[in-house]
């Protein structure tokens, strides 16, 4: 799941495709938008496209499937992953989770139909389901793999302990864990250094999750990695002092390295030895292209530069 040098790789997140989240249908403009972002992503070397059955009420998968149908040979050039486990607006509930055997099989088959493909390279379980029976998950995943519909399994928003609990019942390894990780949302990082420190109580990220994933070779996929443009496009008056200082440092480093602030921001994530793979979710082709140098920035970023960005984002020094 990771690149040959052990670092992560860029992933394109398809949540922005397909039009509004409501029940309205998609049209030619949404399909054209999907085609444009796929082309831009491929242009900077992105080969994995991330979906979920709930994105845009299924329309993200559907417009992507339309592009696959009209682009001969495209499916063989890319990897697809999708997620299941969240149910929206069903059974009188706004949201609930469902990782039962029947739900996994139902949702994967629906995703394959929308994507107009016979298989996904990776299936992620979208969120922990307190009512989950790991044996049911193992049975459903085993069936999907035997049918050739799923090639690998991952999870999303799970702790190291939850991954280990599930893995005990599975015959296939869990290859990825998708979490919110960025220079702005740093719980994943702060929790690793604030052990035995009062400041650690401010962060809810389950300690040991990074270490578990690193030890077991689980790829960490970072959603929200561009921090919703907070450092690379927000108006100055909208920024806190720490955010303004961080944005300025990203600009300076980008100038020194002959690249973009977006590439520096993602390179900071990829510098971490946990093999973090940032997910790029913008639907702006120009901004996708601005991420092209992330891996090379990670390879050349110094320890002082990495810590400098972290301290700037914190607004206070590390302990």
Brief overview:
This protein is α/β, with parallel strands linked by helices. It has one domain (11-235, 272-283): Alpha-Beta Barrel (TIM Barrel).
CATH-derived topology:
TIM Barrel
**Structural class from helices and strands?**
alpha/beta
Number of domains: 1
Q: What is the count of β-strands?
A: 10
Question: How far do the termini sit from each other?
Answer: 34 Å
Strand content: 15-25%
The helix/strand order is EHEHEEEHEHEHEHHEHHEHHH
* Morphology: globular
Task: Characterize the structure shown.
With 319 residues, the protein is α/β, with parallel strands linked by helices. It has a single domain (11-235, 272-283), classed as Alpha-Beta Barrel (TIM Barrel). 41% of the residues lie in helices and 16% in strands. The chain contains twelve helices and ten strands. The protein has helices at 28-43, 59-70, 101-115, 134-146, 160-167, 187-193, 209-216, 241-257, 261-271, 285-289, 294-300, 303-314; strands at residues 11-13, 48-50, 79-84, 86-90, 93-97, 120-125, 150-156, 174-180, 219-223, 276-280. It has an eight-stranded parallel beta barrel with strand order 1-2-3-6-7-8-9-10, surrounded by four helices. A two-stranded antiparallel ribbon has the order 4-5. Helix 4 links the parallel strand 6 and strand 7 (150-156). Helix 2 (59-70) packs across helix 3 (101-115) and helix 9 packs across helix 11. The relative contact order is 0.13.
């Amino acid at each position: 799941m990771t690149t040959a040098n052990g670092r992560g790789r860029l992933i394109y997140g398809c949540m922005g495709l397909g039009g509004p989240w409501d029940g309205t249908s998609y049209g030619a403009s949404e399909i054209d938008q999907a085609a444009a972002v796929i082309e831009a992503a491929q242009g900077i070397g992105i080969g994995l496209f991330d979906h979920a059955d709930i994105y845009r009420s299924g329309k993200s998968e559907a417009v992507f499937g339309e592009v696959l149908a009209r682009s001969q040979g495209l499916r063989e050039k890319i990897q697809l992953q999708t997620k299941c486990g969240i149910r929206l607006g069903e059974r009188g509930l706004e949201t609930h989770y469902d990782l039962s055997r029947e739900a996994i099989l139902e949702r994967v088959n629906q995703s394959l139909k929308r994507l107009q493909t016979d298989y996904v390279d990776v299936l992620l379980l979208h969120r922990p389901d307190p009512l989950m029976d790991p044996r049911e998950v193992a049975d459903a995943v085993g069936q999907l793999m035997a049918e050739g519909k799923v090639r690998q399994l991952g999870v999303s928003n799970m702790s190291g302990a939850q991954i280990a609990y599930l893995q005990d019942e599975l015959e296939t390894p869990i290859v990825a864990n998708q979490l919110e990780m960025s220079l702005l949302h740093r719980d994943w990082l702060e929790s690793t250094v604030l052990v035995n420190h009062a400041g650690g109580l401010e962060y809810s990220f389950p300690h040991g999750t990074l270490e578990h994933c690193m030890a077991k070779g689980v790829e960490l996929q970072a959603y929200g990695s561009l921090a919703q443009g907070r450092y690379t496009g927000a108006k100055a008056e909208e920024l806190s002092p720490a955010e303004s200082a961080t944005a300025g440092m990203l600009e300076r480093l980008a100038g020194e390295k002959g690249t973009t602030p977006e590439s520096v921001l993602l390179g900071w994530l990829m510098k971490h030895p946990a093999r973090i793979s940032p997910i790029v979710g913008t639907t702006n082709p120009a901004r996708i292209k601005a991420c092209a140098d992330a891996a090379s920035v990670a390879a050349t970023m110094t320890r002082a530069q990495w810590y400098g960005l972290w301290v700037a984002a914190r607004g206070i020094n590390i302990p």
